[in-house]
Amino acid sequence: MDFTVVDLGKENEAENSSLEESTSIFGGVEVEEPYVGMEFDSEEAAKKFYVEYARRVGFVVRIMQRRRSGIDGRTLARRLGCNKQGFSPNNKGTLGSEKKPRPSAREGCNATILVKLEKSGKWVVTRFIKDHNHLLNANANGFSTTGDKDKKIAELAMELELQNQLCAAYREKLLSFIKTVEEQTEELSTKIKLIVENIRRAESEMQKCSQNR
């Protein structure tokens, strides 16, 4: 998803960032953070890392601006950020009257990361703003509290038990159906056998009658 092309070349300052590898503790689990100078083999690799970092920390990534080459149109820089960045504009009706305001997910959050394509072919983090101006939703395991984690485990265990019961019921029905088919097949086979024997007996009687004549 592309937005208006902007010049990212002037943004070389690294706010709230580190010049060396760093980690933070979220929910009791150590999470590797981006840092200025961090390298990736591709834009997609950088994006994947930041999305996974966001998931573990507890926010959702918004794909933001990019800068393209004026020669071949390839991407030279990409900005990713928190989905609560910016503010939603006021909506107005066709006659100029204001609509009833809708709840907005944007809170003006400045958390962002900027990666640029260097001459070496590597994508390098040149800007990283870590802090959010809102509460994060989850810890490294995807749960806000230990209680939520235990509750989720209990729900999954109950769902698994239900599925096991359904499987057992389906298996019983299937076995019953197979048994019914086998019984009907055996009964049909017996009837066919009797019919064949009756036909043969009738043919034999007809032959005897012909001979007696």
UniProtKB/TrEMBL annotation:
Stretches for region Disordered: 82-105
Q: Which InterPro entries match?
A: FAR1_DNA_bnd_dom
Coiled-coil annotated residue ranges, if any: 153-212
Which segments constitute the FAR1 domain?
Answer: 48-137
Q: Which residue intervals are annotated with compositional bias (Polar residues) in the record?
A: 85-94
Give the UniProt keywords, A-Z. Coiled coil
Q: Which domain of life is it from?
A: Eukaryota
Which PANTHER family would you find in this protein's record?
Answer: FAR-RED IMPAIRED RESPONSIVE (FAR1) FAMILY PROTEIN (PTHR46328:SF7), FAR-RED IMPAIRED RESPONSIVE (FAR1) FAMILY PROTEIN-RELATED (PTHR46328)
Report the protein name in the record.
Answer: FAR1 domain-containing protein
Q: Source species, please?
A: Crotalaria pallida (Smooth rattlebox)
